[in-house]
Write a structure and sequence with these properties.
Elements lengths: L4 E5 L5 E5 L4 H8 L1 H6 L2 E4 L2 E3 L9 E6 L4 H22 L4 E2 L4 E2 L2 E7 L6 H17 L3 E6 L1 H7 L4 H8 L7 E6 L2 E4 L13 E11 L8 E10 L2 H16 L2 H7 L3 E2 L10 E2 L1 H20 L3 E2 L5 E3 H7 L1 H4 L8 E3 L2 E5 L4 H8 L11 E10 L15 E11 L4 H19 L3 E6 L9 H17 L5 E3 L9 E7 L5 E10 L2 H4 L4 E2 L5 E2 L2 E10 H11 L13 E5 L5 H13 L4 E3 L5 H10 L4 E5 L1 H6 L1 E6 L6 E5 H13 L5
Parallel strand pairs: 1-5, 16-20, 22-23, 29-30, 29-31
Antiparallel strand pairs: 1-2, 3-4, 3-5, 6-8, 7-8, 8-13, 9-10, 10-11, 12-13, 14-15, 17-19, 18-19, 20-21, 21-28, 22-24, 24-25, 25-28, 26-27, 31-32, 32-33
The protein binds zinc ion (2 copies).
Length: 640
């Protein structure tokens, strides 16, 4: 009936009346031909949908063009279909898994006879260009489960997925030219819109991330709306590749893994250990200055502790299995908090003792699937620079202030700018609303007073308390997880924490969990990439390397190195091969300073100094001055 109208609310506040069953494309056309041409998808009542999806009831609608961030995901997912279309054209027997958009692109998993080679990727990319050229429209069709079973009868992966749908769920399939996929959508109107894309790599990936299932072959790619953005992204990837901590970690001899030790368990080589020890020494000095006390707790503890803490109930799948000793079950600890709580409870505490701040470089073990392990960034054993503050509710603002100072000082030392996010009360939360409101207001007040900018992650807090999250921004603009401070109303309750107040009554303290570097492994993995392996002098495993110009000055070179070592600097001599080779080698190993000793330098007690990355520029200086200069640079923990 012609009177069947629905109301569409547009972003500018106007309301448009259209016939029931109109599509977002119809609406775009009524707004203007320019918008209709630019339209790629639409957001209807907050859900991203195809332009041709009929709207059956009053709704709010926003037309998405390439200027909207959400469109990029739609483009990339559509590019994944183009990829699958091309793979199927080249190999009709290829079975198809999932093809989602991801952070910086997309992937698609295939069940094929053998892994894809770089040549395969080139051929697939060529075929994708044909699919784009053909400009197939993405056609959506709703089918019954029975119909879907028939459509995908030759693809066991899709059939398995299909069986998981509820009976009343809408099952949609999408066709672009010859290719049909079981997919929820949405997609851009046609394959012709996928103009700027690149396939990046291929890797094995277990079906559904489960190592007991079949190994599929995953192809990664990316797509953008403009060639410029694509090229910039590829340049960033190249730069990131050069900084890969796994490659540099091996070249510079910083860390290793060994299958006999087990995946995700890091072995620190001497050079990597120097970096870690310097950071630990620095942080220890820093936190002692900020009023912390150092504690130690065991690595393996009775399971009972995790029953009380609730980890066994809520975190068991991330814990290593139990071992039995004298009939009691023990676990490697996944967190340090329960141990610190027991130290708190070893004595009766009075309000005069608070705040109590316990810190530990605590090594924890967590189960992660082997498929997600990644160098030093995602591991199964790691050392947290963990601390727990026990204080009264009134003391929380001051503790947060202290923490902000700590964070600012520490991150400046490493040369990281950072952002702050405040995560607030989720729907399901423990503790009273008043308690949450007070805690959140405290956090905001401290941030506001300091004039710090921060984002609010509404409802993003843990169920047991609000949190501040700091993100580090590295040298090439990538974000890394940084310090966090988490208020906890839960564990003090579960463990029955108490202190005796001024009124002689028992009170419950508030507990704060905080880390600065977080995981030592992840932090140093990140630092390797941040500095591209060229560590500032105070962290460099080898700080200075001394070469003789020729053999007759070897003795003199050793004297200089000895002098540097006596001043506490990490100095080596190197007299193999030619001088040119020695210098190149030191550059490869990213040694911050080189000192060359020849006839002149041996004669007048000087050294010719070169600095990393400055090419042939050298400066002849007195040996004492050289030592002094390096000492001073180390003490300041100067960045490059
Ligand atoms: Zn799709
Ligand atoms: Zn904790």
């Amino acid at each position: 009936m012609a009177s069947e109208k629905i109301e569409i609310a547009l972003p500018d506040g106007t309301v448009m009346e259209v016939p029931r069953g109109s599509t977002p494309r119809d609406v775009a056309e009524r707004i203007g031909p320019g918008l209709a041409r630019a339209a790629l998808a639409a957001e209807v009542d907050g859900e991203t949908v195809d332009l041709d999806r009929p709207i059956q009831a009053d709704a709010s609608l926003r037309i998405l063009t390439k200027r909207d961030e959400d469109s990029l995901e739609v483009l990339r997912h559509s590019a994944a279909h183009v990829l699958a279309t091309a793979v199927r054209e080249l190999d009709p027997s290829a079975r198809i898994g999932f093809g989602p958009p991801i952070d910086e692109g997309f992937y698609y998993d295939f069940g094929v006879e053998r892994p894809f080679t770089p040549q395969d990727l080139e051929a697939i990319e060529e075929k994708m260009k044909e699919v784009v050229e053909a400009d197939h429209t993405f056609q959506r069709q709703v089918v019954s489960k029975e119909e879907a079973r028939e459509l995908f009868s030759d693809d066991p992966l899709k059939l398995e997925r299909l069986e998981e749908f509820d009976d009343d769920e809408v099952i949609s399939v999408y066709r672009d030219g010859p290719f049909l996929d079981l997919c929820r959508g949405p997609h851009i109107p046609s394959t012709g819109e996928v103009k700027h894309f690149k396939l990046l790599s291929a890797a094995g990936a277990y079906w559904r991330g489960d190592e007991r299932r079949e190994m599929l072959q995953r192809i990664y790619g990316t797509a953008f709306f403009s060639e410029k953005e694509l090229q910039e992204h590829l340049e960033r990837l190249e730069e990131a590749g050069k900084r890969d901590h796994r490659v540099l970690g091996k070249e510079l001899g910083l860390f290793t893994v060994d299958s006999r030790v087990g995946p995700g368990l890091i072995l620190w080589e001497p050079s990597g250990s120097v970096i870690r020890r310097e950071i630990e020494d620095y942080e220890q000095e820093l936190i002692l200055r900020h009023g912390y006390e150092i504690v130690y707790s065991p690595h393996v503890v009775s399971e009972e502790l995790f029953e009380i803490s609730g980890h066994l109930e809520n975190f068991a799948e991330n814990m290593f299995g139990a071992m039995e000793v004298e009939g009691r079950r023990y676990r490697p600890k996944p967190m340090n908090c329960p141990g610190h709580i027991c130290i708190y409870q070893a004595n009766q505490r009075s309000y005069r003792d608070l705040p109590i701040r316990y810190a530990e470089f605590g090594t924890v073990y967590r189960y992660e699937r082997s498929g997600v392990l990644h160098g030093m960034l995602r591991v199964r054993g790691f050392t947290q620079d963990d601390a727990h503050v026990f204080c009264t509710e009134e003391q929380v603002p001051e503790e947060i202030e202290r923490l902000l100072e700590l964070v600012a000082e520490m991150l400046a030392t490493f040369g990281y700018p950072y952002t702050i996010a405040l995560a607030t009360r989720p729907e399901k939360a423990l503790g009273s609303e008043a308690q949450w409101a007070r805690a959140e207001a405290d956090l905001r007040a401290v941030l506001d007073e300091r004039g710090l900018e921060y984002d609010v992650d509404e409802g993003g807090g843990a169920f047991y308390g609000p949190k501040l999250d700091f993100q580090l921004i590295d040298a090439i603009g990538r974000k890394w997880q940084g310090p966090t401070v988490q208020l906890d109303f839960n564990l003090p309750e579960r463990f029955g924490l108490e202190y005796i107040g001024e009124d002689n009554e028992r009170h419950r303290p508030v507990m704060l969990h905080r880390v600065l570097v977080g995981s030592m492994e992840r932090f140093i993995g990140g630092l390797i990439e941040h500095y591209a392996g060229a560590f500032p002098l105070w962290l460099a495993p080898e700080q200075v390397r001394i070469f003789p110009v020729s053999e007759q000055w070897t003795e003199s070179a050793h004297e200089v190195a000895e002098m540097l070592r006596a001043a506490g600097l990490r100095a080596e001599t190197f007299d193999r091969e030619t001088l040119g080779y020695r210098i190149r080698e030191a550059e490869t190993m990213k040694v911050p300073y080189m000192g060359v000793v020849g006839e002149r330098e041996a004669g007048d007690g000087t050294v010719a100094v070169r600095k990393r990355g400055r090419g042939k520029k050298q400066e002849v200086m007195g040996r004492e001055d050289f030592v002094k200069r390096l000492r001073e640079e180390v003490e300041r923990r100067a960045l490059e």
